[in-house]
Amino acid sequence: MPSENTLKSLSELNEVIKKEHPTLSKRLRQVAEFVIDSPSDVAFGTVAVLSEQAGVHPSTWVRFANSFGFRGFSEMQKLFQQSLMEESPNYQDRIRMARSAKGVEEQEQSPHRLLKRFSEGNSLALQHLSETTSSAELEKAIDILADAHAAHIVGVRRAFVVASYFAYAFRHIDRKAYLVDGVGGMYKEQASTLDQNDVLIAVSFRPYAEETQSVAREAAAKGVPLIVITDNQISPLASIASVSFVVKEAEIDSFRSLSSSLCLAQSLTIGLAHELDRREQSASSAD
Q1: Does residue 31 belong to any structural domain of this protein?
Q2: Omega of the bond prior to 207 within 30 degrees of 0, cis?
Q3: Residue 223 is assigned to a structural domain of this protein
């Protein structure tokens, strides 16, 4: 961790935060997660407001800044403001601008108004997904999936929807797929069937289910490739993943969508089908 401020950009700070995250105290981790999740809020906010949003004491923000070599919060905040001026509006900024444009209309809670708000929010989230997802990472994930003998998929509670979709879709393209559903509490037993020729897809969103983490850690310990879909760069799964996709879902009135995660799952599945077909045709041509 830097003893004095040697960080010149927000991306550099984010990289250091991700590296140091496991060693931070509980309160500093809360700030780190807020910083990664809501950079625009940090750029605009006062210490008092940010402390309330992050659920920490104001002095924690100062300690956090000091921990990364800044003389105080204001010096660290300049990186966030600089980034905001240099870059085009990000997803959160677009949401903020969209909310401001709606004005009084947002107070309406008719079914049609709710449908419109969810549709607009998901549209922005899907656009953000396509803009921020790396082509190289998509291709890497599809290569891993194509090379694997079987895919095992884990995701609980809200993430179960995405995990179960993967299992359903893979079977429709004639790929072996096993849903690690922990029936009877047997997560450990189901995870024990993984071997190095397989792949594990882990889907986990905050607060990051321990069941999913446990299965992912066991897979990583065995050297099984791990593809992760999560919502934060400092998710506990991201650091052990072979490929990690960070997905920002639309959130309306504290209800988070799954449209972007399902879109990514569908893209990986159809991309895998095309890759398997390409390999089959190449093999036929070679014969």
Answers
A1: yes
A2: yes
A3: yes
* Same domain flag for 216 and 268: yes
First to last CA, the chain: 56
Q: At what angle do helices 26-37 and 10-20 cross, to 10 degrees?
A: 140
pLDDT band at 168 (very low <50, low <70, confident <90, very high): very high
Q: Whole domain around residue 97: which residue ranges?
A: 91-103+111-131
The gap from C-alpha 139 to its chain's centroid, in whole angstroms, comes to 18
Contact 244, 230 (CB under 8 A): yes
Average pLDDT over every residue of 102-123: 71
Crossing angle of helices 91-102 and 111-132, rounded to 10°: 160
Rounded to the nearest integer, the mean pLDDT of the chain is 84
Q: Tokens 């797929």: give the residue.
A: 177
Helix (H, G, I), strand (E, B) or coil at 246: strand
The reply to whether 179 and 253 lie within a common domain is yes
| Whole-angstrom distance, CA of residue 84 vs CA of residue 87 | 5
Element at 177 (helix H, strand E) = strand 177-180
